[in-house]
Amino acid sequence: MVISSLVVETFPEHTQNIKEHLQEIEGVEVHDVIENKIAITIEAETVDRSHSIANSFVAFEGVINVNLIYANFEDDPDIARAASK
């Protein structure tokens, strides 16, 4: 399991709509909204899947930036397989 924490920065007039859209994505949890910044976590099976989910946010109308704050990927099965070779 890979757990990442991110802040999604939005144009203020789009913040609520983006928050609602983020809440609909499997593996994404919205924790807080402060002005135009949305604090979220992503739980995904692999680093690649987490990255794919986060990259999808830039396509949302009104997203300015997506900032990775923290990532824990010690349980990523792809990384474990690569390390054992």
How does the overall form come out from the CA principal axes? elongated
Instruction: Give the helix/strand class.
Output: alpha+beta
Number of beta strands: 4
User: Domains counted in the coordinates: how many?
Assistant: 1
Contiguous helical run count = 3
Q: Compute the CA-based radius of gyration.
A: 14 Å
Strand order of the largest sheet: 2-3-1-4
Provide tags for this entry.
single chain, 85 residues, alpha+beta, Alpha-Beta Plaits
Describe this structure in words.
The protein is α+β, with helices and mostly antiparallel strands and 85 residues long. Helices cover 31% and strands 40% of the residues. It is built from 3 helices and 4 strands. Strands 2-3-1-4 form a 4-stranded antiparallel beta sheet. β2 (28-34) and β3 form a beta hairpin. The mean pLDDT is 91.
Please describe the topology of this protein.
Blueprint: E1 2-10, H1 15-23, E2 28-34, E3 37-44, H2 47-56, E4 63-72, H3 77-83
Antiparallel strand pairs: 1-3, 1-4, 2-3
Quick summary:
With 85 residues, the protein is α+β, with helices and mostly antiparallel strands.
